[in-house]
Specification:
Length: 322
């Protein structure tokens, strides 16, 4: 079980021994003439402090919120554009994470996600990617790889309804020996602001794996899904969950029977040592869910916030001009 109170932080790596190189060297160059990769057999060597300048915080700042056991507010981005993503990331000092929505949003994984990740993470906010393929399909593996290779600090997989699928998602998100994720991107570590070797050393402990609970089957298998080692967060999909049970989507409150299921997911997630996330339509509902114990709360999405903001400003203009 992953412990959020003892995550490997960059400061711990910097003050301890990490993997180094020995044996016969094999070198090859990347497209960048200044970059050379050393593929010698690993052994332990002393950390060379001058090679990196790391803070005492985790490589993924959302983990610091988890360790502090406080709610982390964020939002979803459904529209593309480097400058738009950066504006959203800088819109509030209370923004702690942003999820790029490739499931229901208008941007594609390629091209699109990589520049949004760069725009968001340049502001210091971790970017996550909700992949377009759902967990009930077999098309998730390459999408997870692409999102993480583009530098995302976490992935969100919709419609994960079985423990088997949850284990597959975890394996696709972790490097060996704990997973099957491959390494080779020239962009990943750049978006984490570190070297390739440093990224390999900390990625398994700092990439956040989120699975969505939004089907009848997922509720039936909830205990088993929540028990999967390597799953970090259970994200409730209230709209799809409502429709799965024959109820209308929340507007803004879910049907009382769906609310019971929401509270069940929250309870089981915490019992199994996981974090629980929830999407809501406005700040007032976000505060309510945070008080209930949700660890991540999405304060609507970019278009929702844009609409609310424009509406409020025009209401003020008309009201104050009378």
């Amino acid at each position: 079980m992953r412990s959020f109170s003892s995550q490997k932080s960059l400061s711990r790596i910097a003050s301890s021994e990490i993997r180094g190189f020995s044996s016969r060297p094999v070198f090859f160059s990347s497209t960048n003439p200044k970059v050379t990769y050393d593929l010698r057999v690993p052994r332990k060597i002393k950390w060379r402090a001058h090679e990196a300048s790391f803070s005492t915080m985790s490589a993924n700042s959302l983990l610091d919120a988890f360790k502090a056991k406080r709610p982390a507010f964020g939002t979803f981005i459904t529209s593309g554009g480097f400058f738009f993503a950066r504006a959203v990331a800088k819109a509030s000092p209370h923004m702690e994470w942003i999820c790029i929505d490739c499931e229901h949003g208008l941007m594609s994984l390629n091209p699109g996600v990589s520049e949004l990740i760069a725009a968001i993470q340049a502001t210091g906010i971790p970017a996550f990617v909700r992949i377009p393929a759902t967990g009930v399909s077999m098309g998730t593996s390459w999408q997870i790889k692409y999102a993480l290779d583009a530098g995302a600090k976490g992935i969100v997989v919709p419609m994960v309804s079985t423990a088997e699928k949850a284990r597959e998602v975890v394996s696709d998100s972790r490097f060996p020996p704990v997973g099957r994720r491959g390494f080779g991107s020239s962009y990943t570590h750049g978006n984490w602001n570190m070297s390739a070797q440093d990224y390999l050393d900390i990625a398994n402990d700092n990439v956040i794996v989120t699975v969505q609970i939004e089907t009848k089957e997922a509720i039936e298998n909830l205990e088993e899904i929540a028990a999967v080692d390597g799953v970090d967060v259970l994200l409730l999909g209230p709209s799809d969950l409502s429709m799965a049970y024959g109820y209308p989507v929340p507007s803004p409150d879910p049907h009382p029977e769906i609310e019971k299921l929401i509270q069940k997911v929250l309870r089981v997630a915490h019992e199994k040592g996981k974090k629980c996330a929830m999407y809501v339509n406005n700040g007032e509902k976000a505060a309510q869910r945070a008080k209930e114990g949700f660890d991540m709360v999405s304060v609507t999405n970019d278009i929702g916030n844009l609409t609310l903001g424009i509406s409020a400003q025009f209401d003020d203009a008309v009201r104050l001009s009378k």
